Amino acid sequence: MPELTFVNVGLVLSEKILEEGLDSPMLDFATDDFIQEIMSRHEFHPEIGNYLALTNIGILFEPCLKYNIPELFKSHSRNKILFIHTQAVIKDDVLYFNDPSDNITADLSGVHYIIV
After folding, report:
1. CA torsion 61→93→96→112, rounded to 10°?
2. Mean pLDDT of the region 104-112
3. 79/92 Cα distance (integer angstroms)
4. What does the CA dihedral 92, 90, 32, 49 come to, rounded to 10 degrees?
5. Residue 20, Cβ neighbours under 10 Å: how many?
6. Which of 4-13, 21-30, 44-53, 99-108 has the lowest mean pLDDT?
7. Separation between Cα atoms, residue 28 and residue 22, nearest integer Å
8. What is the structure's pLDDT at 22?
9. How far apart are CA 90 and CA 47, in angstroms?
């Protein structure tokens, strides 16, 4: 596996939120822009081409953000390889953020993925 540069989503997003000093009514709108900015990034590796590697994605599962995780992954993996480093469990096309007894999930049916 080639050496990848990962974006720490939780750290970057929380820093942006703190920098903006956003109050809670604006949080979901501004956070959407911040997430799109993060997801629009890419790196280039001579062996694999354009890619985006993410870690610490837990903040994306925050209910107040109302984020559609599968759509986010699908839309941002069309023109680049999307790597996600997580301790989540995937079972029957469902990503369980902590473990299968948890209610924090994302339906991955329709998303092409490989577990490594």
Report:
1. -50
2. 85
3. 26
4. -110
5. 14
6. 21-30
7. 10
8. 67
9. 27
Residue matched to tokens 């953020």: 97
State the average pLDDT for the chain: 86
Checking if the pLDDT of 36 tops 70, the result is yes
Residue 1 pLDDT class (50, 70, 90 cuts) = low
- Amino acid occupying residue 79: N
User: Rounded to two decimals, what is the model's pTM?
Assistant: 0.83
**CA torsion 31→29→32→11, rounded to 10°?**
0
Number of H-type helices and E-type strands within the chain: 3, 7
Q: Most distant CA pair in the chain: distance in Å?
A: 44
Answer whether 52's CB lies under 8 Å from 39's CB: yes
Query: At a CB cut-off of 8 Å and minimum separation 6, what does 12 contact?
Result: 34, 38
Torsion sign over Cα 108, 30, 78, 11: negative
